Amino acid sequence: MASISHGQESERPNVLMIVVDDMNDWVGCLDGHPDTQTPHIDRLAKRGILFTNAHCAAPVCNPSRVATLTGLRPNTTGVYDNSVKWHQKLGNAHSIPQYFKSNGYKVIGGGKVYHHMPGFNRISDWDSYFKQRFDGHYQAQLHAGEDISSFRFPFGFPLNDIDAVKNLNRPPRNAREFDWGPLDKPLEDTGDGQMIQWATEQLKTTQPRPFLMVAGIYRPHLPFYAPKEYFQLFNSESLETPAVLKDDIKDLPPAGRSMASQRREDLELVKTEGKFRELIHAYLASITFTDALIGRLLDALESGPSADNTIVVLWSDHGWHFGEKEHLHKMTLWERATRVPFIISLPHNRNRSSICTAPVSLIDIFPTLNALCGLPYVSNLDGRDLTMLLDKPSANWPHPAITTHGFNNHAIRTKNWRYIRYANGDEELYNHRKDPHEWNNLASDSGVHDIKDQLRTYLPMNNAASLSKKRKP
């Protein structure tokens, strides 16, 4: 069995959890984009098990991270958006850091683990925490000494040389984030780089008891900034753009079209201004920058005192669209927004170079780590223990991955199908064996009634009311 010794506390494995932000499947080991460069994520995949059909519980930062770290889906907690400070509403909920700490682990973290705004990180979950540090925006450099957080559109100067921005009636939402470009600073001087330096120092030190370290890397989240050396690895003009189908939204139901339309003005803007390839360039540079940060963590672990007894888990909170379904950003229930990199590496390369195609969810991490580390079973988790798949990646796995975006909007992902059911009853159905791009919505076809009936059985029975003050079901 993949489970690790449950004997003395000293025999329990350590856990290094690496969390990245907004990274879709554009990594080398997932064949997500032909131009991407992720040698260190690929290296981790070769020493562990790569879940190629892994999905987030929600395609938005806060609900995804809350779900992953508590093992509870949004429909269970009512955390559907970024406004809910989860621990103020779910005070009794276990989290992975809190549960490991209460069971004798030294628990340390840094960077972006929960939502990055103040008040979302329950500090009592940690023995120590390295706070997140952000890189300055270009606009702040143009106005020395002024606080960019006080700026409002129009700025009075172009954003990324897009002169049209300041004249728009509806400029990009979160305009301070809608930026990209090379930073004239080394990796070590970036916010993420400083967190990684802290983390590597921890990994060089012999710890007095088993530890859980969670390193939260903010990139490749917007704004797409990275040291210029990572931009120099790519040429905007030669980059491949994602495969899209013209009029792809024509077979979507009204609820699907509405979801796809969110922030479409951003996509239209970068295309109209001829900046689309430049935006992709910046995203790929940010991914490669993130990969370099991960490489430093792996190097420190492998050369340190805990190399032989540490589980490594890597995951991204959700994916990211670049024009698929005429959409830019996250916040949808399609493959591009839900599929994420997810790797588990056990000590001594026990699951080396394994690939698992079963549909799994990030909420499965909590029960899986409990089993691997011999912690007491938690009965109310929505996730499932994946150790069966760690032992045998080809084992029969009858469970789907479920993604929720907003109240009672769900996607069911099995090995071959994606079924989407919206709160108003609208449906979509895609056959991934024949249609990996999800270009053909089969929901209205006469021959799929039995398939839809089967997939409907996986829909959550209960949908908790939203805890947000902004949105109610």
Overview of the molecule:
With about 475 residues, the chain is an alpha/beta fold. It has a domain at about 10-135 and about 180-245 and about 280-390: Alkaline Phosphatase, subunit A (3-Layer(aba) Sandwich). It has 15 helices and 18 strands. The strands form five sheets. It has an eight-stranded mixed sheet with strand order 5-4-7-1-9-12-2-13, sandwiched between helices. Helix 1 packs across helix 11 and helix 7 (about 190-205) packs parallel to helix 11 (about 275-305). The protein starts with 13 loop residues before the first strand and ends in a 17-residue tail after the last helix.
Number of strands: 18
Kindly name the structural category: alpha/beta
**End-to-end Cα distance:** 43 Å
Q: Which consecutive residue ranges, at least 5 long each, have pLDDT under 50? A: 1-9, 139-158
Largest sheet: 8 strands, mixed
Counted by DSSP, the helix tally is: 15
- Shape call: globular
The assigned CATH architecture of the domain at 9-135 and 180-244 and 279-390 is: 3-Layer(aba) Sandwich
Q: What is the name of the CATH topology of the domain at 9-135 and 180-244 and 279-390?
A: Alkaline Phosphatase, subunit A
What proportion strand?
A: 15-25%
At the fourth level of CATH, the homologous superfamily of the domain at 9-135 and 180-244 and 279-390 is Alkaline Phosphatase, subunit A
* Strand adjacency order, main sheet: 5-4-7-1-9-12-2-13
Q: Give the helix proportion (percent range).
A: 25-40%
What radius of gyration results from the CA coordinates? 22 Å
CATH class of the domain at 9-135 and 180-244 and 279-390, named Alpha Beta
Quote the average pLDDT.
89
